[in-house]
Amino acid sequence: MNRKALHPENIRLTVIVACYNEELMVEMFYRTVVRYVKKYDYRFIFIDDGSKDETLSILQKLSNEDPLVAYISLSRNFGQPNALKAGYDFATDADCVISMDADLQHPPDKIDLLVAKWQDGFDIVNTVRAVQMDGALNRRIFAKLFYRFVNIISTTQILADGPDYRLVDRKVVSALAEFKESTPYLKEIIPWMGFNCTAVPVNIESRSYGESKYSFLKLISLSLRGITSFSVSPLRLSSFVGVGLSFMSFLYGIYAIYVHLFTDQTVQGWTSIIASVLFISGIQMLMLGIIGEYLGKTFLASKRRPAYLVKEIRDVSFSRSVEHKPELRTTRPVAS
């Protein structure tokens, strides 16, 4: 397919949007973004990630109003990465897929630029923050440290300051459908694939209403998922630290025996001994925690549970030439 020769009305573009308690924003998001995608053969897929508010009711209303709005209602909250994975799994018939947040922080006026880059031949078009991310200082520091640490220990380099606002080609979407991980981490999975990619700078806007659904504890949990998803370097590091501490303890033991047998001095200092014991014990607990994290992931993977479960789906086609009534379904294969 010659992408460059495609006219906008012939490009089948799907916008996938993960929503969790976004009743204040989701309709505004749709009304805003639809103005930027009307030139394409577009379709929206909203994924309701187990919202407790009226998000699903609003999506049902939008789907009834616009035959090009589909939605997937998950049985509970599975988390944003799993919800986005559900969106990709149900968008394999698109020429290209754009993922966006429902809070309008991702500027829709960049959609044409993302599509243009795709037409230039790029299979993955990422976005990066053009300016320093907003938010609390501790979040900014934590994010910088996380990205730096992950890119040091992992062979897969993830994009620092890269939000989940990206365009991917249909071949990337088809490849994503082959991943059966119960805890997918898309920021590492997508660059790991190795398709031709580029990045464009964007200004991330402030939320108009509501607040971020990511607490600091959720960010830590997501970070642990990212660190342990594509690298065993923490396990190797724990081995090196264990060997180093054992060697230091061995040398200190030889020194203590020498002082006791060949000098009149005695090994003194309960404070230093207790401090050493506590330090080594703390390191041991840290190493056990790292091992436990990997064992936990192995335990969850062995259960072969799906990444998400669909409670209800309203699917739509791309065709705008034929009036298409949304189809309500309650069953469809889910990711495993």
From TrEMBL:
It is a multi-pass membrane protein. Gene3D superfamilies: Spore Coat Polysaccharide Biosynthesis Protein SpsA, Chain A. Residues 14-173 form the Glycosyltransferase 2-like domain. InterPro entries: Glyco_trans_2-like, Glycosyltransferase_2, Nucleotide-diphossugar_trans. The chain crosses the membrane at residues 240-261, 273-295. Keywords: Glycosyltransferase, Membrane, Transferase, Transmembrane, Transmembrane helix. Its main location: membrane. CDD domains: DPM1_like_bac. PANTHER family: PROPHAGE BACTOPRENOL GLUCOSYL TRANSFERASE HOMOLOG, UNDECAPRENYL-PHOSPHATE 4-DEOXY-4-FORMAMIDO-L-ARABINOSE TRANSFERASE-RELATED. This is Glycosyltransferase family 2 protein. It comes from Chitinophaga chungangae.
